[in-house]
Write a structure and sequence with these properties.
By secondary structure, this protein is an all-beta fold. Helices cover about 0% and strands about 40% of the residues. It starts with 5 loop residues before the first strand and ends with a strand.
């Protein structure tokens, strides 16, 4: 049975495969299968099961999340950390919050409310702390620096360009959304604007086009040069 074909019920309490109910039980809560395991909750607590419905381990947690990069985030009271695909703690440290691993890197927050990124074994991948740090995508992450501005960093924690912004999005097909004092726009990997106009809201480019909202609350579709294609 392919785990990717296992579905969860509309009330998030059971699993099915090709319309047939699995495991002969309802849970209090379930999440989708990822990498062959699913996070579930029953009267005993939160844990993970495999595609046969077997418990991955005997421990129980306050919360459990999906497996990404063979690591699953779990909460034990107020301590957050990751488990391996064997159900063992992946490292000795605990955090105040963790994200999910993406590209074998994960964003975490420590007890001092510092954000940074760790590797699969819990090691810091750089020494700087940030006010906030997002997931990596194609080797680049958005972070909010101590100065209050947002920048992009690479997997060694180095800034990829000299530009700072009021807000930032991840790079998607070589372009990112960025906000300066005048509004939102799109930038390239050097931090250079693609066009001069600014918007109240924008989305990433999808096959060369992006939806934007003007300060007059008009929705438009623009191309990568900022040309208006149509209003929607």
């Amino acid at each position: 049975m392919n785990w990717e074909h296992i579905k969860i019920s509309s009330e998030n309490k059971s699993f099915s495969h090709k319309g047939e109910r699995l495991f002969g039980k309802n849970f209090l809560d379930v999440l989708n299968f990822h990498s062959g395991f699913a996070a579930v909750k029953d009267e005993s607590g939160c844990y993970h099961i495999d595609i046969s419905g077997n418990e991955l381990y005997n421990d129980r947690y306050t919360r459990t999340f999906g497996y990404y990069c063979n690591r699953a985030a779990v909460v034990q009271e107020n301590n957050w950390f990751h488990l391996t695909s064997k159900g063992e703690k992946a490292y000795s440290t605990s955090f105040s919050w963790t994200g999910n691993f993406q590209e074998n890197i994960c964003t975490v927050r420590d007890g001092g409310n510092n954000y940074f990124h760790i590797g699969l074994n819990g090691e810091r991948i750089y020494q700087d702390n940030f006010v906030y740090a997002g997931d990596y995508k194609d080797g680049i992450s958005c972070v909010k620096t101590q100065s209050g501005f947002y920048k992009h960093i690479d997997t060694k924690g180095n800034f990829i360009n000299v530009k700072s912004f009021h807000d930032l999005g991840v790079y998607h097909k070589n372009f990112a959304t960025a906000k300066d004092k005048n509004g939102w726009h799109h930038i390239d990997k050097s931090g250079i604007e693609l066009y001069s106009q600014r918007y109240l809201m924008i989305e990433p480019f999808y096959n060369g086009l992006a939806i934007v909202e003007t300060f007059e609350n008009k929705k438009q579709i623009i191309d990568e040069k900022g040309n208006k294609i149509l209003e929607v």
